[in-house]
């Protein structure tokens, strides 16, 4: 019962939950429980009177939540994509390959695709309702050539019948998709590749298509509201990897990233950009160095 939950119980929950769940999940749940406790006086005053004046979830020992290994960076190699496409072709549910293909082409989330209706389909973009998006805001998803091809394929399957505006593009239920997707990955040994990882693949491809990678543009295309988050999690790592892959150092920012400087002041400290005078060549005394 809520009135039996003390700080000790909250600590035990964090410790045990951390053994089976990711640190980010445990931290998020602790925050949600803290909010619930703070709202109880407004939701159930009688129950709130029985509770300790100390919010156990706020006072819990957060050091019990294990340190995260950092953001997930699972990508999809060309060889893995070939295997994945091959495995998808064996699906009895013919909508599953189209859903995965649309995810790779647009970076849409699973729920956004499964809730998509024909009224939201335009020639070159999709219009998502606020209720469909994670941020609860209307979003417009640009369709790449691959995305347009998938939508046209779905339209062709209808034959001469015109779809109803509120008719869903995909009839597959969430549970049916989960089961099929799990079998697809197991067939080719890609159990560690999650559908949400297709979002990272799509964003990386978008960055490669941009002449000047922009977090602002990515925010508009993916629906991620935090431009800073996009810059930190996607744009900078992408540029770092491309710099390492190509060996291209064309700017001061490239130099700083390559040598590990966080700002221009440290780079200036190491850079010898002034003219090399005879005194400098000779040493501190200023006299020319003698030949041995």
Describe the structure.
With 292 residues, this protein is mainly alpha-helical. 54% of the residues lie in helices and 3% in strands. It is built from 15 helices and two strands. Helix 6 packs across helix 10. It is globular. The mean pLDDT is 82.
**Helix/strand/pairing category:** mainly alpha
How would you characterize the largest beta sheet? 2 strands, antiparallel
Number of strands: 2
Mean pLDDT: 82
Strand content: under 5%
N- and C-termini, Cα separation: 89 Å
Which SSEs are present, and which pair or pack?
Elements: H1 7-17, H2 23-43, H3 45-50, H4 56-59, H5 78-88, H6 95-106, H7 110-114, E1 125-128, E2 139-142, H8 145-157, H9 174-187, H10 197-209, H11 215-222, H12 227-246, H13 252-259, H14 264-270, H15 278-282
Antiparallel strand pairs: 1-2
Describe this protein with a few key phrases.
single chain, 292 residues, mainly alpha, two-stranded antiparallel ribbon, 15 helices, 54% helix, globular
Question: How would you sum up this structure in a few lines?
Answer:
The chain has 292 residues and is mostly helical. The model has no long low-confidence stretch (mean pLDDT 82).
């Amino acid at each position: 019962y809520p009135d039996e939950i003390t700080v000790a119980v909250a600590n035990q929950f964090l410790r045990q939950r951390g053994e089976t769940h990711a640190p980010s999940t445990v931290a998020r749940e602790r925050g949600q429980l803290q909010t619930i406790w703070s709202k109880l006086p407004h939701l159930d005053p009688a129950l709130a009177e029985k509770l300790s004046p100390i919010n156990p979830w706020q006072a819990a020992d957060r050091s019990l939540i294990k340190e995260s290994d950092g953001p997930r960076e699972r990508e999809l190699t060309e060889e893995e994509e070939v295997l994945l496409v091959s495995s998808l072709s064996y699906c009895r549910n013919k909508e599953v390959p189209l859903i995965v293909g649309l995810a790779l082409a647009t970076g849409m989330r699973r729920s956004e695709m499964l809730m998509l209706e024909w009224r939201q389909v335009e020639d070159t973009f999709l219009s998502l309702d606020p209720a469909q998006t994670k941020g609860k805001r209307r979003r417009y998803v640009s369709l790449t050539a691959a995305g347009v091809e998938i939508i046209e394929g779905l339209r062709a399957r209808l034959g001469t019948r015109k779809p109803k505006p509120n008719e869903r593009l995909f009839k597959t239920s969430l549970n049916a998709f989960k089961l099929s997707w799990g079998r697809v990955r197991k067939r080719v040994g890609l159990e560690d590749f999650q559908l949400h990882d297709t979002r990272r693949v799509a964003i990386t491809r978008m960055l490669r298509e941009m002449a000047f990678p922009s977090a602002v543009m990515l925010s508009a295309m993916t629906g991620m509201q935090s431009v800073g988050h996009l810059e930190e999690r996607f744009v900078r790592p992408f540029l770092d990897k491309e710099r390492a892959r190509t060996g291209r150092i064309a700017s001061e920012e490239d130099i700083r990233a390559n040598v590990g400087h966080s700002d221009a002041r440290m780079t200036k400290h190491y850079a010898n950009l002034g003219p090399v005078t005879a005194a400098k060549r000779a040493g501190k005394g200023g006299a020319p160095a003698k030949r041995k």
